[in-house]
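Tutorial handout. Part one gives the primary structure; part two gives the three-dimensional structure as tokens.
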Amino acid sequence: MTSYHVPVLLNESIEALDIKPDGIYVDLTFGGGGHSREIIKHLTTGKLIGFDQDVDAERNIIDDERFIFIRHNFRYFKNFLKYIGYEKVDGILADLGVSSHEFDVAERGFSFRFDGDLDMRMNQSAEFTAADILNTYSSEDLFKVFKYYGEVKNPGKLVRLIEAHRANNEFKTIQELKEVITPCTPKFKEHRYWAQVFQALRIEVNAEMDVLKDMLTQIPDALKPDGRLAVITYHSLEDRLVKNFIRDGKFAGGAEKDFYGKTNAPLEAVNRKVILPSEEELELNNRSRSAKLRIARPRTK
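Part two.
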């Protein structure tokens, strides 16, 4: 196994899935395979299907007849499961966000710690990059991206600086972007601000919110009646979508209820409170810092 990525909330995720030795399980975010390797330890005749759209993840494929790897976006996971013969499964795990490997490879453009191209594509065969956003989006669209996906406090000033630069120059590199936005970057809080800007661009490049919604809406039909869903989130936008869908069966607007006041949401939460990393894990794995684990199961009729 490579040092590609340290799995977050590993023990808690495995416990959440309540693994059956003969069950069928899905890891929607295979990455370095840390969660998958632990899941497969609990299987005898069961199967594990791993999804990942990043070509780099293929180097971590598990050489085991119980494991099936599908290099594709989890946005379409239900169709792929059906194609390989599985209508419903016993458990689904999704560890959202960007892997530590992607952050650590400078040329992928995910991290402001390095200079490199403004890329940020999780699927490297896709054509649309962060540079395309900065160079082609209207001021209104840029404002929305930074305000809603990055939750920056001064999106107007940020967009004006970007527009002034691109009037005569194309954005190409990370260092270039950081220099251009320096006038609106709060002193002594530069790293936090850059993180917000980069998060916004990454979410837009990879259509992360739309992909997450598409995935979540497939979960109820993909789980067996006693199946489990475990989702690890890292920022408030994705966590809000997961929480709302588990609670209400919708992403906004509250749950619909029947004549007797019973919710029509197809899932129900297993854990009353969101599960957070232990102090021990936080000391060992920086990526765990903002992680939250939510667990759900099909709602009983």
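Part three, for discussion. The CA atoms of residues 280 and 288 lie 10 Å apart. The two ends are 43 Å apart (CA to CA).
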